[in-house]
Predict the 3D structure of the following.
Amino acid sequence: MNNSNRSILLIDDEENLRSLMARIIELEGFKVLQSKDAKHGLKLLDQEDVNVVITDVRLPDANGVELTRRIKEKYPAIEIIVLTAFGTIEDGVTAIKNGAFDYLTKGDDQQKLLPLLNKALEKAVLQQKVRHLEDKLSKQYGFEQVIGKSKSILQVIDLANKVAATENTVLLSGETGTGKEVFANAIHYESKRKAKPFVAFNCSAIAKDLLESELFGHATGAFTGASKDKRGLLEEAQGGTLFLDEIGELNPELQAKLLRTLESGEYYRVGDSKIRKADVRFIAATNRDLKREIESGHFRSDLFYRLSVFEIRLPALRERKEDIPILTNHFIQRASAKNNKRIEGYDDRFITLLEQHHWKGNIRELKNVIERCIILSDETTLKANLLPYDFNLSETTEDSLTLANSEKQHIQKVLSLTQGNKTKAAKLLDIGLTTLYQKIKDYNL
């Protein structure tokens, strides 16, 4: 470990003692910064990378115990050792409560300092590695992954950012493919729980009679086939976040049990009498209108109001059309790399048709369409003829209503259906293969 990773800040107004301690520490290979007061010490922390702070309790401009709290709030990865004079051990104990690593009584054998310093350094370096990993995860899964600059998406990001810092339950609503899991991930990785698990579960992806066991776990013998104890998703997500997608798929009995867990923080495994604690933040999502589900008797109103403490509605893609070019460029880059192709962009008609489309599948549909176009493209620019048949139908100009254009669109639809297999397409069109090739040339398909 080089000196840049072994940096110590020593804060003490007694110059002789400070210089002596600095010399002892430097001889062990540490880089030592010195300060005679809290103000200068805090300034050094802003300017330098420091692993461990050693501070006296009694400083000219601050109390070291209070200074410990201030440093830990701003630099949680830095470890602090507090120096106390005789008879002020109580200050050291209070400092530990404020986040200090340990305290050392002045006048003790200096040999106690170095082992304590090394232990504090080990913890500080580990904390910095953890924070680096957390920052990396935040960039990978945080709000940076939400693409778009439209007013509607920026408003949603702002709401999600604000609720991320809290412990509130969040309900994400919106059409399929609008990015609900992306937002759930971002809320988790911008929260205090980001170092703990994020567990995502689609409530519609498993048989309804197995949902309870999946969520809460089960005990041996709870039902036929339960040959051993099983941890549920609540245990897997302990300390972190449990994301329940398609929450509207839960049956009424399971809704009641989930509500009890949300209200009490307790639950039972299936077939077990032991109460378990659930330290979990819940984020739920749905593409259904849960208020209509309540009216029809399919969803509990009390569970809805408990889940929707903070509801965020994600806008449909057609409500943020100005983001389509940004998203398109993003998906082109990703799909080009995935398919080992060099696609540099798209022509005007291509993006016009994308902006005119209704996008029932929203961002997910756009992603799939772009990837399909890249697979089909033999050029470096994506063109409108690569788009599925229904995209071209959105153009209702006079030219689009001609018989030739209808024939062109029909041939394009059949080629799309056969995935470019011209022999099959000719057979379905009931024309010769040579005729098909001629029409492909004529229509520039």
About this structure: Residues 190 and 386 are 39 Å apart (CA to CA). Residues 318-442 form a domain with the Helicase, Ruva Protein; domain 3 fold (CATH 1.10.8.60). The chain has a mean pLDDT of 88.
